[in-house]
Design brief:
- The structure holds 2 protein chains of 2 kinds.
- Chain A is α/β, with parallel strands linked by helices.
- Chain A has one domain: Alpha-Beta Barrel (TIM Barrel), CATH 3.20.20.
- An 8-stranded parallel beta sheet of chain A has the order 1-2-3-4-5-6-7-8.
- In chain A, strand 4, helix 5 and strand 5 form a beta-alpha-beta unit.
- In chain A, helix 2 packs across helix 3 and helix 5 crosses helix 6.
- The longest helix of chain A has 20 residues.
- Chain A starts with a strand and ends with a helix.
- Chain B has 2 domains: 39 residues; 39 residues.
- The chains are: A alpha/beta, B mainly alpha.
């Protein structure tokens, strides 16, 4: 089965991960800009990071037949430095012009401070002005419900197209208001701290598969890119068809990311023997 | 040996994760009952009953024996 990893921090992972993903059917990954584990001090550090994910990383993925796309953003954890944020934002348009950059992300909230909310608003604003997609991080654990509400409040005060915005890391207590407002949502499958493969399938069964994206966890912390395959196995084990799995784990990423024409992987449809026979 | 604080800090997220999985299992069961219009058979009912007894046992503040022993004895019934 062909799989797309829509949220994958490739620079934190090994070539062996690419190799194993390729062997398990992954055909493309999309890499949002991430926190480095410490707060960066210089705009140039971000510029080089964006060059790494937009120029170098696609060449590494290509060695395994995997397409690599990316996003640019100042991470919410670094939004407490508004001068730095403004300076980095000035460079976004030059990256929007690169062939594998899909939009702005992951922006969003961490502790939902005033600076973070202003940074989120500035990120969404520049994305909308340049016709870019947006990927929004919602906080972890105790801050999640409040932070997600704040994200929705910030977006409600702006002129945005919800179809072009993906609110990520939703869980049972936050998914409904995001879907009700018309946004795409993403589940992030971490070994412990976020959603689990089984809970993600529960939500797919409860809310349907429209505007749903499923990500593995893949960064420099405790995480596992193959939680996505675990989720596919759980989905199929519960009796959902191969085509239904393709819709969620391949075609939905194509539908959302494909709103940017640079993402040129098309949804696929399995032609069954029954259909072939009917055609003669 | 860990201090009381270290015990909680070291394992809180893992325990949170495990309890969420139990909660999701119970929600999944309810959803299946609603969808199919029928509940589990006798074997499944016994297993669910033991799970609920186990959750109640975990809420006892100072049990007379170790909680793991109580739960293993409970699970041995099904």
């Amino acid at each position: 089965m062909q799989i797309i990893q829509p949220h994958y921090h490739a620079i934190a992972r090994t070539a062996q991960d690419y190799e194993r993903m390729a062997m398990s059917g992954v055909v493309a990954v999309a890499e949002p800009a991430f926190w480095a584990g410490f707060d960066r001090l210089y705009p140039e550090t971000f510029i080089d990071y964006f060059r790494q994910i937009s120029e170098f990383e696609p060449t590494r993925a290509a060695q395994y037949g995997i397409r690599h796309f990316c996003w640019v953003a100042v991470n919410p954890k670094e939004a407490e430095n508004p001068v730095l944020t403004r300076e980095v934002l000035k460079h976004f348009p030059e990256f929007f012009a690169k062939p594998t950059v899909l939009g702005v992300g992951e922006t969003g909230l961490h502790k939902s401070t005033k600076n973070e909310c202003e940074s989120l608003e500035a990120h969404v604003d520049i994305a909308m002005k340049h016709g870019q997609l947006v990927l929004i991080h919602t906080p972890h654990l105790a801050d999640k419900a409040h932070g997600t509400r704040r994200v929705l409040e910030v977006l409600a005060g702006m002129k945005v197209d919800p179809e072009r915005i993906w609110i990520d890391h939703v869980e049972e207590q936050t998914i409904k208001p995001c879907l009700d407002a018309g946004y795409w949502v993403g589940f992030t499958l971490y070994p412990i701290t976020k959603c689990s493969p089984k809970r993600a399938v529960d939500m797919l069964e409860k809310y349907g598969t429209d505007r749903m994206l499923v990500n593995s966890s893949a960064d420099w912390g405790p995480s596992d890119p193959f939680t996505l395959q675990e989720c596919i196995l759980e989905f199929r084990r519960r009796g959902h068809s191969l085509q239904e799995a393709i819709e969620v784990f391949h075609n939905n990423p194509c539908r959302f990311l494909g709103q940017n024409p640079k993402f040129d992987i098309a949804p696929i449809r399995i032609e069954t023997d029954v259909v072939k026979a009917a055609r003669g | 040996m860990l201090s009381p604080d270290q015990v909680v800090e070291a394992s809180f997220l893992e325990a949170r994760h495990q309890l969420l999985e139990v909660a999701a299992l119970l929600d999944r069961h309810d959803a299946a009952v609603n969808r199919t219009g029928r509940d589990v058979g006798a074997g499944g009912a016994a297993k669910l009953g033991v799970l609920r007894e186990a959750l109640e046992a975990l809420c006892v503040p100072r049990p007379s024996q170790e909680r793991t022993v109580t739960l293993l004895e409970l699970f041995a019934k099904v």
